[in-house]
Design a protein that fits this description.
Oligomer: single chain
Radius of gyration: 24 Å
Number of domains: 2
Largest sheet: 8 strands, parallel
CATH class of the largest domain: Alpha Beta
Low-confidence stretches: 1-21
Number of helices: 11
Structural class: alpha/beta
Mean pLDDT: 93
Strand content: 15-25%
CATH architecture of the largest domain: Alpha-Beta Barrel
Strand order of the largest sheet: 7-6-5-4-1-10-9-8
Bound molecules: 4-nitrophenyl 6-deoxy-alpha-L-galactopyranoside
CATH superfamily of the largest domain: Glycosidases
CATH topology of the largest domain: TIM Barrel
Number of strands: 17
Helix content: 25-40%
Distance between the termini: 48 Å
Order of helices and strands: HHEHEEHHHEHEHEHEEEHEHEEEEEEE
Length: about 450
């Protein structure tokens, strides 16, 4: 009895001390919406958009850099060496008179995206909201409108989750913010000043003013200055202000630790296997993130649709970027792509939203996703290339029906040595949009 009492006390002590620890982690249930959403829209917009990828007669090439990276237009200040005062002066003519937050978020919604992420402050240090922390913000432009406030209102109205990209490490405006790798490195005690004066206070301001659903921090290969201590300090700040705000892995790309909510892939990077944490690929429609008037490398709609479904099949999301123009409009090729992806999701969204990965490696030209339903389960087979039939290692007795998802056209299921075989009619491949087969089953795989 004494021993039992002792263990009970011991347990109580443990549980209690566990609760009194400041917790950096977020309940995984709070990222359920993110996992189910699968598709988000990203926006890179700021003073750099006004330069459109060119400066002083030079244009950033749209070819790939030796390291496999592109000449991103939002890096124009550093890549084409715009003098600091001249870059700062862009604020004096920032006036995107066509900007309409409601119209943007309607496009996001019609695209079938479930969340929206915008650069609240990119590496250039310019804030798109009314910041009490820094004068380098949208209120000190002729436009004088809090862009984030307008977008947040539109997201709430349309039921779209929203988050902010915030460059917590690189800041080319603050005299102590981190600079690109080819510039001299700041002494760490200088960076500390930027960290205390601008980075942490602006993140807090974003949380308090706008209550975002997620924060998108940005570091990559080399995380000088972003030590584990600073990473954890920032996580603790977010957790202390917001019980719901998700944090991405690029808060410290090489060492995200255990307390981030989802992993962020490298730009346009697609993992080959299923990952256990929620994750997403930030992806461009062209090469650049920010608007580049000479970047004509628009990706095809089937290609982008395939990235979306393929990521879903590995438990991940697709965060597709738009670089709005300096007048506040989305580029026409971006709008057409958004609307066509939205049309595809209108017909086939069931194969994407709220699905889970399947542990079977599919044959070439096929992507699997699945979900449980009240009457059993659905296996979705997305076809990325024409073929005569699909073979599946599924027991014949498990199948309760099969049809093309978009049209409802019934398909015959045959018993085969390896399980089942579904012959595919030629007409399925009459146009270039991906077709999905919905297999009704008794249980998930
Ligand atoms: C970063 C930003 O620098 C870029 O402007 C954009 O916002 C993107 C989403 O995130 O991109 C980088 C930049 C450099 C590397 C990786 C991502 N890098 O060198 O590995």
């Amino acid at each position: 009895m004494k021993r039992i009492m002792f263990s009970l006390l011991f347990c109580l002590f443990f549980v209690h001390s566990g609760f009194s620890q400041p917790s950096l982690s977020l309940d995984p249930a709070k990222s359920a919406w993110f996992r189910d959403a699968r598709f988000g829209i990203f926006v890179h917009w700021g003073l750099y958009s006004m330069l459109e990828g060119s400066y002083n007669g030079h244009t950033l090439p749209d070819t790939t850099l030796p390291e496999g990276r592109s000449w991103y237009a939002e890096w124009v200040q550093m890549r084409l060496e715009v003098p600091a005062e001249e870059y700062r002066a862009l604020a004096r003519s920032f006036n995107p008179t066509d900007f309409d937050a409601d119209a943007w978020i309607r496009e996001v919604k019609n695209a079938g995206a479930r969340y929206f992420v915008i650069t609240s402050k990119h590496h250039d240090g310019f804030a798109l909201w009314d910041s009490d922390v820094s004068d380098f913000d949208v209120m000190n432009t002729p436009f004088k409108r809090d862009i984030l406030a307008e977008l947040v209102a539109a997201c709430k109205k349309h039921g779209v989750k929203y988050g902010f990209y915030y460059s917590h490490w690189q800041d080319w405006e603050h005299p102590q913010g981190a600079l690109p790798y080819w510039k001299p490195k700041r002494p760490d005690k200088d960076f500390e000043k930027y960290w205390r004066e601008k980075s942490l206070p602006q993140v807090k301001e974003l949380l308090v003013k706008f209550d975002p659903d997620l924060l998108w921090f940005d570091t990559w290969d080399e995380v000088s200055h972003i030590t584990d201590e600073r990473r954890d300090e920032l996580i603790a700040l977010v957790r202390s202000v917001s019980p719901k705000c998700l944090i991405n892995g690029r808060i410290s790309y090489l060492n995200p630790g255990e307390n981030i909510d989802f992993l962020e892939m490298h730009d346009n990077q697609y993992p080959a296997s299923i990952l256990s944490k929620p994750w997403q690929t930030p992806a461009t429609m062209v090469r650049s993130w920010g608007w580049h008037a000479q970047d004509f490398n628009w990706k095809s709609i089937p290609q982008m649709t395939e990235y979306l479904v393929s990521n879903a099949s590995k438990g991940g999301n697709y965060l597709l970027n738009i670089g709005p123009k300096p007048d506040g409009n989305f580029p026409v090729p971006a709008i057409r792509r958004l609307r066509e992806i939205g049309a595809w999701l209108y017909a086939n969204g069931e194969a994407v939203y709220g699905t889970s990965p399947v542990q079977i490696t599919p044959e070439e030209g096929v992507i699997f996703t699945q979900k449980k339903t009240d009457d059993g389960a659905r296996l979705y087979i997305t076809l990325t290339a024409p073929k005569e039939s699909v073979e599946l290692p599924v027991e014949y007795g498990e199948v309760t029906g099969c049809a093309v998802l978009e049209s409802g056209r019934p398909l015959e299921v045959k018993k085969s040595p390896g399980g089942i075989r579904i012959p595919l009619p030629d007409a399925l491949f009459n146009d270039c949009s991906l077709q999905v087969i919905c297999l009704r089953m008794k249980n998930t795989l």
